[in-house]
Specification:
39% helix; elongated; alpha+beta; 15% strand; four-stranded antiparallel sheet
Length: 168
């Protein structure tokens, strides 16, 4: 194959090369004839025309990190993408804040060291690479904060009101 190195050909594996250079899947869609004509003016391949139109018009959104620090003043909080493996950790509750982000709330006091240990154990059990990456990202933030001479990890209370069952 001209222009393709042996290494990339081996890494890609057998079969047809990726059409868009990123994960994709087949879909069936019904479109009005006038929309099809306009898409055909963009590219004869309908799939490429749709992708080009979306890439042109969609706002450029920042890809979210699985965990990141949001700073305010001389404080910072950890914002996470809510993943199943994190929700399942004992004593962890994720508080949604919008934009597919959440805060981590811990039951009880002095739970941060326990959370670090639980994150590492969950990483070993997680079968999904995205889940492992999210857990590792949070663990890395906590480790870096713990080891930094300039930072300290301080626990704060988030007030969570729980609705109980209504009495009859």
């Amino acid at each position: 194959m001209p222009g393709v190195s042996a290494k990339s050909a081996v890494a890609r594996g057998r079969g047809r090369p990726r059409k868009f250079g990123r994960p994709s899947r087949a879909v069936t869609v019904t479109l009005p004839e006038d929309a099809l004509a306009r898409l055909g003016a963009i590219d004869a391949d309908l799939g490429r025309a749709i992708v080009a139109a979306v890439d042109r018009t969609a706002p450029k959104t920042k890809l979210l990190e699985p965990a990141e620090l949001a700073t305010y003043g001389n404080h910072a909080i950890i914002l996470v993408t809510p993943v199943k493996a994190l929700k399942e950790l004992p004593g962890v509750e994720l508080i949604p804040i919008g934009g597919n982000r959440a805060l981590i709330a811990l039951e009880g006091v002095h739970q941060i060291p326990r959370l670090e240990l639980d994150l590492h154990e969950a990483m070993e059990r997680a079968g999904d690479a995205a889940q492992r990456a999210a857990l590792a990202s949070i663990a890395r933030i906590l480790r870096d904060a713990r080891q930094s001479p300039r930072l300290k990890v301080a626990e704060r209370t988030i007030i969570v009101l729980e609705y109980g069952r209504r009495r009859r």
